[in-house]
Amino acid sequence: MKLHLVNKWIGVIFLDSESLALCIYSHEIFDLFLPFVTVRRLNPQMEVTRILLLLVFISSTFCCTPAHGRARLHKKRPRNSIALPPMAEPPSPSFIRRLPALAPEPTIRGNSGLNSTNSTSAHPPPPPEPIDGSHGWNSTNSTTVLDVRAFGAVGDGVSDDTEALKSAWEAACQGGPGLILLPQGYTFKIQSTIFAGPCRSELTFQPTLVYNKVDGTITPPDGPDEWPQSISRRQWLVFYRVNGMKLQGGGLIDGKGEKWWNLPCKPHKGPNGTTLPGTCDSPVVTSTGFTSRFSKANECWKETKLSFSQALRFFMSSNLTVREIRIQNSPQFHFRFDNCRNVTIDTICISSPALSPNTDGIHVENTELVGIYNSVISNGDDCVSIGAGSVSINIVNVTCGPSHGISIGSLGKQNTRACVANITVRNAVIKHSDNGVRIKTWQGGSGSVSSVSFDNIRMDTVRNPIIIDQYYCLSKSCQNQTSAVYVSDVSYTGIRGTYDVRTPPIHFGCSDSIPCTNITLSEVELLPAQGDFISDPFCWNAYGATETLTIPPVSCLSEGLPQSILDIGSDKCY
Questions:
Q1: What is the domain range of residue 34?
Q2: What is the dihedral of CA 408, 410, 413, 415, to 10 degrees?
Q3: d(Cα 474, Cα 414) in Å, to the nearest integer?
Q4: Which residues are catalytic?
Q5: What pTM was computed for the model?
Q6: What 3-state class would DSSP assign to 268?
Q7: What SS3 string covers 467-522?
Q8: pLDDT per position as a tens digit, 70-126
Q9: Residue 272: what pLDDT?
Q10: N or C terminus: which one in the chain shows less Cβ crowding within 10 Å?
Q11: What is the CATH number of the domain that holds 525?
């Protein structure tokens, strides 16, 4: 009976403890306990002796021997985890690292070990020693991060970090997929610079890692007095001939435009529509040798060449993404996309004072396939301005104001030809603005604006919620001309909210010789922000219809089409 119990216990070991059984096999003691299984009756003393020896051996094996073998060999690291080096070989210091696929708080390897990028020290650490060899590249199979500090950037807001950023760009552009990192907690002062492609592969330009909080900042020199005489002031950061670039992260791009706005040169709209002095040379309304009643100030501008325009310009580029960036206080335009294709702008914030001149938020021209989504823009000019040559522009879920609204134009200045088509603005909010949704053209132009849809837009105290102005002019000296950009196929659906009572809520001022055609309105409800008096809409040479009842009623549209429609249609671009 005792032998049977012992054999049963050994059987339990084999059936219920796989690792124990394997350990017994691995130490080749099968022949030790085999007699207990195959032989039922033995000398009692030998039986007891073998049992004791077996128990002692098993105890010593599992108490004194570490777990090896199968359990060790089949233990896998989680996917995307970083293999740690042996303890005797600490990681070498480097600001260049492989970007983890799912890292909530990425860190940067510094000279004193792993330092979190969440540092908020008032005095940034000094830059690392120059990296020998490949300028900080790690040989990996994924995106490589290039911290501009590894290329000599200081990030104290005083030192000039232009050359460091250019060096990082060159390394990323000529290498594999790369991410140029301007980390949080630093302010990088950058002069006017062109970042030119084409690059060997896609790259990302990131003022701070998308995983981190907003701190990293890029600034230009502080005003015209600090700007070098030999450097262009017409643009600040230009990305030229790049494909597949991403500008992202939670960082701040601060244009420091305050000292530029106060320089007298070009008149611009102030409170209540009055004209005030302001800066020169808007990219849309260019000015060379501008003369006005501010002639003395203009001479100063001519002598010192103090012209400044857009903060960030993308030129002749494609497959661009701008995401989760804050940009503020540009001297003039904040973003400009010129001769580009396939652009996505998502979740950005643009802010400048309401009276800052010509500070358009996003300007596109000669560009197609653009999506602007989920963004907030407040500035002193158009939130979004759509220039000549723009096709297939989609604006969705944008909050705009204070501002001059969302505009197509201005178009046709100085008798130029302009073509714009397939424009959609949907699910937008426009508040405390001079205009809501606007189409503006100069007299004397040619070309066409067609297939435009404004859908589900809420107005909050907007001066001109719906406006087509084909007599756009920045002074009182513009002369009437017979030609004009042809405006057709424009729909307004679900436009609701309040308007500023100083002007009519709906204004269709079309050309004397080239009327607007096929204007449709549906579910339009616009009420005065103050008082009970509802202003009548204004129409001039405008053809179209209302598909539902509107508030206010729009009875001024001409029905059908003008007799000269065949002649007008011949100038249509699309």
A1: 2-71
A2: 20
A3: 13
A4: 404
A5: 0.71
A6: strand
A7: EEECCCCCCCCCCCCCCCCEEEEEEEEEEEEEECCCCCCEEEECCCCCCEEEEEEE
A8: 333 333 334 443 333 333 333 333 333 333 333 233 333 333 332 333 333 333 334
A9: 47
A10: N
A11: 2.160.20.10
